[in-house]
């Protein structure tokens, strides 16, 4: 049977000047599967080494010429062969010889007389050990390369919290030097609290054998000051993340990374996500989170808190008239004033006073959280302080701006037990405050929700009212005082609601304004009134004027003049017989735009009147500039005439002033003969009111028109009140 060749296990260079020794060595090494190359002397050995690059070298120490020690040294000098195992064959097992061998760079030695049976195994062992060492060296080099590439600081620590090793990473900002740590306990290196947390984490990692981590911050200027407690003041800090992994039953490896940059980025992102970019105060998201936290806290501690919802009154007008830059400045100034108003107060009960109790939700809406509320009155007191703060004029560049605010308040837990309800209810209360005349603060109550719901239902109904033909017009005559004849008729809209019956325009016109529905409704009124008036003009054969109320939204509608022209054309009405009634508020809203719209309407040739005069700005100079044809004295001045001397004086002054400006004057709300008499004496041109005719359906107006001079025979079908029946001419 042929011998099975042994697997080759390495190439050994054997150098000995004694041929017998060489043969024996080659034989023994061959028996354990090693390949061999022989050399007779040192020079030959060195040359062979360079040529064949053996895995191991065996050198006889004593050789003529270049001895084994010299060869060994020569090999070791070649850097790339610094690790090849070299076994020296020494003449005697004496210490000096062994020492010289190691000093020359030998890996091991074999003494003569050689124990031949174990020589091969010895060589194999040295080869294996050398291989293991090479691999260890490689692993160590790789380890070092990884360490050099990683910015983290490494340390080893035992269960008790002593640093066993500490390798500072190149991006560790030099908080600690390695010599400060090795052999030291955590508490001698880190501030007490952090050291304690780290030790807890070390124990947890050792127990679970899972990776654990810990974030902490240290003052930039060093540990000593941190330990002195100086980090409590706002010293710049660096943030670190320590990851711990168990490397044995009682030892962890820690990697510490400087995460200051990441923290800064996170803070920047947080600021962007949670700050209102215009004012710098917290935004809606931040407020919702603060509210959520407060809710949890108050629920646990059984405390009350309040949410204030503030909205500036007429902010839109400031934006529209003075521009968005001024609007933005105002919002910044408002937030600053709010900040000042709540900062020194009892609002912030937490240790760290911050701005998170205040937020801008968007537009001109701000919210304030009042924690730890003891009495409801405290919330109202804060609202009052805020209102007072808003009332002080804002000086913005060249503008002195006056604003007021409406505030709604909801309470936890009385009004709601979740954030969205509390915010919604505070908003509802704010709307209520606005409806109660602005510059107001109101508490939420559940009845407000009912009101809002019915408001919403009304809005839904109003959206369908036009297409369902639920709207209709009544007409009220305006009578010329000198001729006692009807010269004009005012169209007044009504809504016949399928469930609620007749709804007054005082209820649905503001809603139509708010929702923008006034534009289509107003157009329908205009067209219907023009058609009706044209019929009367034809049948009665006289130039009867029809008066139609225009709301602010309609007046601002850029299609207004087109709509007016089209209504006139479709009905065949002469433009001068269409009277458009505008309130002072509508005209004063945006003076420049007003002038342009008025210009367009005048160009069409319609008759323009100012309605409800005396209730708004009552500015004579504007009246002159607006160049209208008539003004209607508001009925609040006519009520109480002639006894009310103040109203009598105002009425006289308005009539005189209007005549000075060559305007016709109409007195509204004339309900008695005495009022009529007095207005006649004051020279009032026209009168309108229940005394002369209630708002009535077209057929009643047709009857009245047929009587000349006029006789009031009208019924206000919608009020049912027709108590005033008087013959105007007979009163003369
Ligand atoms: N934009 C539009 N507004 C309209 C329209 N139709 C009406 N309105 C406005 O709604 C308000 C209430 O109107 P109404 O309930 O019709 O009241 C009018 C008269 O009924 C009332 N009036 C008339 N005479 C008397 C009186 O002697 N006493 C008394 N207490 N009330 C009286 O006055 C209202 C007419 O006011 P005015 O328009 O200011 O001349 C009202 O503001 C309407 O303007 C519409 O189609 N579009």
Automatic annotation (TrEMBL):
It catalyses: 3',3'-c-di-GMP + H2O = 5'-phosphoguanylyl(3'->5')guanosine + H(+). Coiled coil: none annotated. GO terms for molecular function: cyclic-guanylate-specific phosphodiesterase activity. Residues 11-127 form the Response regulatory domain. Residues 712-732 are annotated as: Disordered. Residues 303-446 form the GGDEF domain. GO terms for biological process: cellular response to nitric oxide; phosphorelay signal transduction system. The keyword Transcription does not apply. It holds the Pfam family Response_reg. Residues 455-709 form the EAL domain. Keywords: Phosphoprotein. The keyword Phosphoprotein applies. InterPro entries: Biofilm_reg_signaling, CheY-like_superfamily, EAL_dom, EAL_sf, GGDEF_dom, Nucleotide_cyclase, PAS-like_dom_sf, Rev_trsase/Diguanyl_cyclase. SUPFAM superfamilies: CheY-like (SSF52172), EAL domain-like (SSF141868), Nucleotide cyclase (SSF55073), PYP-like sensor domain (PAS domain) (SSF55785). The modification 4-aspartylphosphate is found at residue 60. PROSITE patterns: EAL, GGDEF, RESPONSE_REGULATORY. This is EAL domain-containing protein.
